[in-house]
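User: structure tokens for this one?
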Amino acid sequence: MQELDRLFDLSSERAFEALALSIFRRQAAECASYREYLSLIGCDPQAVERVEQIPFLPIRLFKHRDIYCGQGAPEVVFTSSATTGMTPSRHPMASLALYERAFTEAFRCFYGDPEGWSLYALLPNYLQRKGSSLVYMADRLIAACGSGGFYLDEYEKLIADMEADAKPKILLGVSYALWDLAEQYAPKLQNTIVMETGGMKGHREELPKELFHKILCEGFGVERIHSEYGMAELTSQAYSKGENRFYCPPWMRVLVRDVNDPCDVRQRAGRGGLNIIDLANYYSCAFLQTEDVGRLHADGSFEIEGRIDHSEIRGCNLLVQ
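Assistant:
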């Protein structure tokens, strides 16, 4: 069975680790930026025998280098949102079919068949720029659901359309837009999951997640707020069904590292910087050192607590230069 066929058919931790090591060795050889990074930090890929020994690429390098090992030109380049003066991350995507399968299978893992839902996407800042992987995902999921749609600031139309829809619904929204909707209209939603994608994008005050979710619960009349954890540099998403506790699909793992020593990576429960293995990042780099800090639980779930303020990682400066 080929690697891509095995990706969505992982039945054990042993199978995951075997595939992760296989993908690591291929990317260490074929992804030029990752290969250069490994050389700069003194890593011999042939000496890596366990997943926890795999070096994780600092995610900021997606802003400065092409992280890519696909055959031929990418089908699309997804970009992150960035405020004025900031450099967005760029993620070349060799196969949109792989991306679509990853987010569809992940959705099925947590919510079942998309046909059983209507998806309403309140993503104003994402819709107003090009290159958003989130918009692409939402567009395809809306099509798979067969009902729902995109909305900018047409709050009254959104509420009316959802009230007229008898199917179970998911309201997927960027945090500040959901807050605006809850504050201005306080619609008591029926048969609806409210799912936030995180980030105020400079539009509103950043609040502790527990307080923010309480505001949304009261405004929408729901018991809990779901969340989606994803980013332009990833192909996959993790989901939380409440209390800011995220779970990964079978081909994705989160590990924690010491915030002062990025080489000290642990699979056991604890608090630290978050490293992500996303095996669906098959044509870029599957092993990413994020700038998020959080807590890993014994069952593999994780929480997001904030961002890490740290110095440049050894090898990263040289790659940027």
